[in-house]
Specification:
The complex is a heterotrimer of chains A (293), B (331) and C (522). Chain B is mostly helical. Chain B has helices at residues 10-26, 30-60, 78-81, 88-94, 97-117, 119-129, 134-144, 152-162, 169-176, 188-216, 220-228, 233-258, 265-271, 277-280, 283-290, 297-326. In chain C, strands 1, 2, 3, 4, 5 and 12 form a six-stranded mixed sheet that branches. The chains are: A mainly alpha (293), B mainly alpha (331), C alpha+beta (522). Chain A: Keywords: Cell membrane, Membrane, Transmembrane, Transmembrane helix, Transport.
């Protein structure tokens, strides 16, 4: 249904200029990805010498062979999916009802509860006390610990609550008249209307889970449970330790630079693939469906 | 549905609800009122409790750790076993002119990021909204958020190469216009523009997602009636899109103001040089260098507590202002 | 149940290899004793092959048979590659294993040892570890260097062997082409670099040569030596040193530094030093050599010697070789960098250990001839053989695709336990070119004493922490600005010195010297 007729003749120059600017910006942001992709396909020495600028130099697949041959790579890839999917679902299970309750004007102590959420955005316990707390809760070295331990995030709650507040209450009147409970109002009215917002919060959860490594490094003992980003760091640490005996690397087909670029490419691709899937929720017309019901 | 949802603003119902609530309040005792309320609204509390419990267990319980800002913290002795030192760590910080310089730099860099960096994702989202071609739009959106996923080390490497005096693209282009090469990364006056520019370029795409979602929530009926009235794209952007996403902008702005003292430490470490410390050194990098001798958790905690305190005051102020003028607020 | 399994495993393995270790003089305990260990270092976060603790190192297996001590992994932070983080997690839980070892343990051990987390080793070693004690006696000053502020020492360090690390390198083929001799002193070195800059030795018709370059920008400071100033007292950059009067001082507050730095600034301005030396980073050596641009550097023997052969095709005739340090303005030839004789790595006994005597005897085992060979070369007969009284690697080890050190790490040799390294380990796989360079340096008297650091008491530490990081920051800021030509060291010198004084330089030097005196006597 969009929207040729929305554009008057006077808008053409504006639209064209806009396209050009976006295209330029897009090309500039594509560069780092092209760079790491080329790096991952270059010979170890050329990558180390900084000769890779745009396209692969001394094309080779050795870095990928080195990475993909490692059983731990696949295990950590699988773990990343577990943490991302499990963690995101867990987060949404807390955040959606929590944000909804916080958005309701009739909630007693609403201001206090909201303040309590916001406070955690600036005041942090520090690494050691958080670690000891997780240990006391028996959540070290477990999938569940990682999934539950980072489920709620003040920013995401506030973001979603803010979207809920923006939804006119007139939308729920019909449901209320039918005697719907709060759960039903949330499920049948607010959630369908908030798809873009929920998709956004889900994306933030996915991204932070996908990229997160610090706490997985600290909380997990068992190597078979680590996510991809932790594995990436281990490989980098091991390869960079070769520094002083670098002459053996000079003739090697891969180097620390190419291998870490290869792992980075492998870790970015899934997140690239998931975005178009969520993107459809950012397109227009969501509210329209709601109105016409 | 009789009324146009946007004419009947979301707050009208609130006022009505508040009024009837107030009416009810006059009747019955306090206990009875709470009882009634819970009976009626218990579902809301069932929804709220898991989140609150989670916050208490995972974030508030370990907050006793904040007290190490006032202790001579020994990891082995633990928080409770470490001796109190009062405000010593704060005195160490504020008695050091390099800390004061780092604080000043932090504020300046944050201020630049706020002025130039905050509007960028909004602008980007609005620009995306004006693109007709769906494939182009979706592809471009997918690409601009890519740099967010690329490690700081790689991004810093790209920046260093781009600004290199011999091979960098920036100096090459300057050379076409007869400008002599500049060794940008050792020049204090260039550090902040380069750093702020890099973070805007790296993060604007990803940050625009929130605004894209907000724009997606604007009712198309508004645009349709505007078209009937003969409004141009430009007018619709100003009259409909921006006012509709204003609450989101305000919330994001308040949070951004609260992060004023947090500057990406990793990127600074990768880009700064002793020659640029005078403009580049921020609180986090200062603490990092102070702690070379081993884990100075206590000093870092003091700086962190100071940051959080300042952030909180800033947020409270911003929140109060926002509440007064726009009815949007964090709490 | 687990003990039974372990016991069975031991029975099995002993049965196989008993004949090799028939005599029992190395045994620490008659009945096998299990000790738990934290072992966190760059190559492996855990005491097991490549960090996989389900696999036992061949060296551990042999050590079990020889000593009766069985080390069982209990490493904390096995998935973080940051060793200090792993150590902090371990200490925070308070639940320490019997032995705590790995990378950079000196600082935490000396800080938390006096608080009771680790056992002081002075008496234990004197009474139960004759081989370690003999090592201290033969190498005076080392035990003092690792002591904590209370005078006790709390860990047995990894003790590197070998002397030279870095050396001066130059393109001999460029010298030949331009008809120049190897520079023997600072003036000749200047002329050579000038010629590299101006006479197009790479023959591409452009003046794109970079006469002096370095992978670490701090190596530009090594040029200070050419004007009799120091850049550092140890293998850590910007470190203090002990001057001729026996006083600890900092190199960047000396008169010679002013002279040296103004010359470096001059060289930089004339294009003799890589103009991008501060940002080119780790890739500079690979890039500048493979592009036929770099003329001279100061870098490690082992890795810098390796370019001529692989680059022969790309840069025909390339001959990048070590040369003797040019004599300074006062005529002194010295190589400031050398391998540090003592590392902050090693292992310590925790307060929770119920068998400190057995543990220290076990530590001592790695200082016996048998234990030292085991820790250096791996299991005899597997990776090496004794040939005329010398441990010699088997050909398959030396000719493997994998570097010898990487192979050793998987065997459990050369890992960061406390042991005296044997330079014969590295010499066997050092390239011919590097060996020649090392022999050249050995033949001349170039080495100078290292500053091995001091242990502060709480009060001194407080002074140091308060003043030193800011002082160093200020020194480096001024230093880089002077090299880059913003500001002039000669003109700014007095103001610089008075700023240092205002920032507490004198106090830092005072605590440095009081700690130094207490620790090393004199």
């Amino acid at each position: 249904m969009t929207n040729m007729n929305l554009y008057s003749r006077g808008d053409r120059a504006f639209v064209f200029l806009n396209m050009v600017l976006i295209a330029l910006f897009t090309i500039s942001t594509l560069y780092p990805f092209i760079y790491i992709a080329s790096l991952s396909l270059s010979s170890g020495f050329e990558a180390r010498a900084g000769n890779v600028i745009l396209t692969p130099v001394g094309f080779t697949l050795e870095a990928y062979k080195r990475v993909l041959a490692e059983p731990l790579f696949w295990a950590s890839y699988k773990n990343t999916f577990i943490y991302t999917i499990g963690g995101t679902l867990m987060s949404l299970a807390f955040i959606i009802p929590g944000a909804y309750a916080l958005s309701r004007p009739q909630l007693y102590g609403r201001r206090f509860w909201n303040l309590m959420v916001a406070f955690t955005m600036w005041f942090h316990a520090g690494m050691i006390p958080f670690f000891l707390n997780m240990r006391d809760l028996g959540l070290l070295d477990s999938y569940f610990g990682i999934i539950i331990g980072f489920a709620v995030n003040g920013f995401n709650i506030i973001l979603l609550r803010n979207f809920f507040e923006g939804i006119p209450q007139s939308f729920e009147e019909a449901a209320r008249m039918d005697g719907a409970s709060e759960f039903q109002v949330l499920w049948k009215v607010y959630m369908p209307l908030s798809k873009p917002a929920i998709a956004t919060v889900a994306l933030f959860c996915i991204v932070s889970r996908w990229n997160g490594f610090f706490w997985a490094m600290v909380l997990l003992q068992d190597e078979s449970k680590i996510p991809l980003q932790v594995y990436l760091r281990k490989v980098i640490a091991e390869l960079s330790d070769d520094e002083e005996f670098a002459n053996s690397l000079m003739t090697a087909a891969y180097s620390f630079e190419t291998v870490s670029a290869a792992i980075m490419v492998c870790s970015i691709i899934p997140i690239l693939l998931i975005y178009p899937f969520l993107q459809k929720y950012f397109s227009k017309g969501i509210l329209l469906g709601g109105v016409k019901e | 549905m009789s009324s146009d949802p946007n004419v009947t603003g979301p707050r009208t119902e609130t006022l009505v609800a508040d009024a009837s609530e107030a009416l009810r309040r006059r009747k019955g005792s306090r206990v009875q009122r709470v009882g009634d309320h819970l009976k009626r609204e218990w579902q809301l509390y069932v929804m709220l409790i898991p989140t609150i419990l989670w916050l208490l267990i995972f974030l508030y319980k370990p907050m006793y750790g904040l007290q190490i800002a006032f202790k001579d913290y020994s990891i082995f002795r633990g928080v409770a076993g470490s001796p109190w030192v009062g405000l010593e760590h704060f005195q160490t910080l504020f008695g050091n002119e390099q800390f004061l310089r780092a604080l000043k730099n932090t504020v300046i860099i944050s201020f630049y990021s706020l002025i130039f960096g905050f509007p960028m994702p909004i602008l980007l989202a609005l620009m995306f909204n004006e693109i007709l071609h769906q494939t182009f739009k979706k592809t471009a959106q997918t690409i601009v958020y890519l740099p967010h996923f690329i490690s700081s080390v790689i991004i810093a490497g790209i920046v260093i190469t781009a600004f290199s005096p011999s091979a960098g693209i920036v100096n090459t282009v300057m050379g076409w216009f007869g400008v002599d090469p500049v060794y940008f990364l050792t020049r204090p006056e260039w550090f902040r523009p380069i750093f702020v520019g890099t973070s805007i370029w790296q993060e604007a795409g990803f940050q625009s997602i929130v605004y894209l979602a907000a724009i997606a929530g604007v009712s198309p009926t508004l645009y349709e009636s505007a078209v009937v009235d003969g409004a141009s794209r430009w007018q619709m952007m100003w009259k409909i899109t921006i006012p509709s996403i204003l609450p989101t902008i305000i919330i994001m702005l308040i949070i951004r103001i609260g992060n004023m003292l947090e500057v990406s430490f990793e990127m600074i470490i990768l880009l700064y040089q002793p020659a640029t410390y005078q403009t580049a050194d921020v609180v986090n990098t200062f603490i990092y260098r102070q702690g070379i001798q081993g884990g100075q958790y206590d000093l870092a905690a003091a700086a962190g507590l100071f940051n959080a305190g300042v952030a909180f005051v800033l947020v409270m102020t911003a929140n109060t202002i926002a509440k007064r003028y726009s009815r949007t607020s964090l709490w | 149940m687990r003990n039974l399994k372990v016991a069975l495993a031991i029975l099995g393995s002993t049965a196989m290899t008993t004949p090799v270790f028939a005599d029992n003089h190395l045994r620490v305990v008659d009945t096998p004793l299990e000790l738990t260990i934290h072992m966190h270092w760059p190559r492996a976060q855990g005491y097991g092959v490549g960090g996989d603790t389900s696999k036992i190192y061949p060296v551990e297996q042999a050590a079990r048979e020889m000593t009766g001590i069985h080390l069982i992994d209990r490493t904390s932070g096995r998935n973080t590659t940051n060793n200090s983080e792993a150590m902090n997690l371990l200490l925070a839980t308070g639940n320490l294993p019997d032995i705590v070892g790995g990378n950079a343990i000196q600082q935490p051990v000396n800080q938390y040892g006096p608080e009771g987390a680790f056992v002081p080793l002075n008496d234990l070693v004197r009474e139960h570890a004759p081989n370690i004690q003999a090592f201290w006696d033969n190498n005076p000053g080392l035990m003092e260097a690792i002591s904590a502020a209370d005078g006790n020492y709390y860990y047995i360090p990894y003790l590197p062997d070998g002397k030279f690390g870095r050396a001066w390198y130059i393109r001999q083929d460029w010298l030949d082409k331009l008809g120049l001799e190897q520079p023997q002193n600072v003036d000749e070195y200047y002329e050579v670099l000038k010629a590299f800059r101006e006479q197009d030795p790479n023959g591409n018709g452009r003046k794109d040569e970079i006469p002096y370059f370095a992978r670490q920008w701090e190596e530009v400071l090594r040029l200070l030596n050419l004007w009799d100033a120091r850049s550092s007292g140890s293998d850590t950059y910007h470190d203090f040193y002990v001057n001729d009067d026996g006083q600890v001082v900092h190199p960047y507050a000396q008169e010679a530094y002013r002279v040296g730095l103004s010359n470096i600034a001059k060289w930089y301005a004339e294009g003799l030093i890589d103009p991008e030396i501060f940002t080119r980073g780790a890739s500079s050596r690979d890039y500048l050599l493979s592009e036929n641009l770099g003329g001279s550097t100061h870098d490690w023997f082992a890795s810098t010697s390796g370019y001529n052969i692989p680059l022969a095709e790309k840069v025909p005739g390339m001959n990048f070789i070590p040369f003797l340090p040019p004599a300074s303005a006062n005529g002194v030839r010295m190589e400031e960098h050398r391998r540090i004789p003592i590392k902050p790595d090693g292992w310590a006994i925790s307060y929770a250990n119920q068998h400190p005597v057995e543990t220290v005897k076990y530590f001592d085992f790695f200082f016996t001839p048998e234990g030292r060979n085991l820790a250096n070369f791996g299991v005899e007969g597997k990776t090496w053989d004794m040939v005329d009284g010398e441990p010699v690697y088997k050909p398959e080890v030396l000719n493997s695709d994998q570097a010898v050190n990487s192979q050793m790490y998987l065997e459990g040799a050369q890992i960061f336990r406390g042991f005296p390294q044997d330079y014969r380990y590295e010499w066997q796989w050092t390239s011919e070119a590097a060996r020649e360079g090392i022999e050249l340096y050995e033949a001349n008297d170039l080495l100078i004493d290292q500053f091995l650091g001091v242990a502060f008491n709480a009060e001194e530490q407080a002074f140091y922490d308060k003043f030193w990081p800011s002082l160093l920051t200020y020194m480096l800021e001024r230093q880089q600005a002077w090299i880059l030509g913003s500001g002039n060291v000669e003109a700014d010198w007095d103001a610089y010195l008075s700023t240092l004084d205002r920032m507490g330089y004198a106090q830092v030097i005072e605590v440095m010297n009081s700690a130094h005196k207490r620790q090393y006597g004199g």
